[in-house]
Design a protein that fits this description.
The chain is mainly alpha-helical and about 240 residues long. It has seven helices and seven strands. The protein has one domain. The longest helix has 27 residues. The chain is globular. The two termini are about 25 Å apart.
Length: about 240
C-alpha cells in the first residue's frame, strides 16, 4: 500500500493554562455554538426578537446538544464501557458526541424555547439549519483532529494514517465536514423558497444522501466508521 500524504500526528490538546486543559474538540463545538448565536443575531430583527431571546435560544440549543449528544453516544454506542467507567461519562474531551444526539438535542432546545418564549417552532427550525450545518462541519473537523473516527483501509493518495488504527484510512470525518459546509449555500436558497417547516427537511435529506455518497470509496466499496473513543482502543459504531 502506498504511503499517504498525511500521517496524523495532531495533538488533540490545544493548550494547558494553569492546569486547565483546552482541547481542539471542545474548541470546534464552541465555534459551532458561537455560529448559532451569530446567525440568530443576524436575523433577530426579521424574527422580531430582542437580544435576550437570542441569548436564551443559543443557550438552550447548546445545552440540548451537549446533554443529548453525549447521552445518545453513551446509551446506544458505548453503554458497556461507561457502565464499568461511570466517572468518565462527562469526559467530553475523550470524544463521543453522537450526531443523532446533536440533532435531537438541538430540536429539543428549540422546542423548549418555543414553549417558553412563544416562538414559532417551525420558523426557528428553518433558521437553525444553516448554523447547524456549520456546527456539524466544525464538529467533524474536531473528530478528525482527535483521530477518533476513521474509514475503511485504502490506498488512495489522500489516505491518512491515524493513531491507534492499522493501515491507511479514508478520512471520513473530512468528507462529512465538506458535505455539511456545502449544504450551507443550498440551504440559504431553500429557506427563501419553501413554506415553514419544509426548509428543515432539506438538511435531513441532504445529510442522508451525503452519507451514502461519502460511504463509497473510489473503488466502489462501502466505508466503515471506527471510533477511537479512548486512548489505545478502537470500536466500531
Amino acid at each position: 500500500m502506498t504511503s499517504p500524504y498525511f500521517v496524523h500526528r495532531i495533538n488533540p490538546l490545544l493548550a494547558e493554562i494553569f492546569g486547565l486543559k483546552l482541547w481542539y474538540y471542545g474548541l470546534t463545538y464552541s465555534l459551532g455554538f458561537v455560529g448559532v448565536y451569530l446567525w440568530f443575531k443576524r436575523v433577530q430583527k426579521r424574527l422580531g426578537w430582542a437580544d435576550r431571546e437570542v441569548y436564551d435560544l443559543s443557550i438552550l440549543v447548546a445545552l440540548g446538544i451537549l446533554v443529548f449528544a453525549r447521552t445518545v453516544e453513551i446509551v446506544f454506542y458505548e453503554w458497556s464501557y461507561y457502565l464499568q467507567h461511570p466517572s468518565q461519562a462527562l469526559s467530553y474531551w475523550l470524544g463521543g458526541m453522537s450526531s443523532h444526539g446533536v440533532l435531537l438535542g438541538g430540536i429539543l432546545g428549540i422546542w423548549l424555547f418555543s414553549r417558553w418564549r412563544g416562538g414559532r417552532f417551525l420558523e426557528i427550525l428553518d433558521e437553525v439549519v444553516i448554523p447547524a450545518a456549520f456546527l456539524m462541519g466544525v464538529g467533524r473537523i474536531g473528530n478528525f483532529i482527535d483521530g477518533n473516527i476513521v474509514g475503511y483501509a485504502t490506498d488512495v493518495w489522500w489516505a491518512v494514517k491515524f493513531p491507534n488504527a492499522e493501515e491507511f484510512r479514508h478520512p471520513v470525518t473530512l468528507y462529512d465536514a465538506l458535505k455539511n459546509f456545502l449544504m450551507i449555500p443550498l440551504l440559504l436558497v431553500v429557506r427563501r423558497t419553501t413554506s415553514p417547516g419544509r426548509g428543515f427537511s432539506w438538511p435531513i435529506s441532504c445529510s442522508g444522501t451525503g452519507s451514502v455518497a461519502s460511504s463509497l470509496t473510489t473503488s466502489g466499496s462501502t466505508l466503515s466508521r471506527c471510533s477511537v473513543s479512548r486512548p489505545g482502543s478502537i470500536s466500531t459504531s
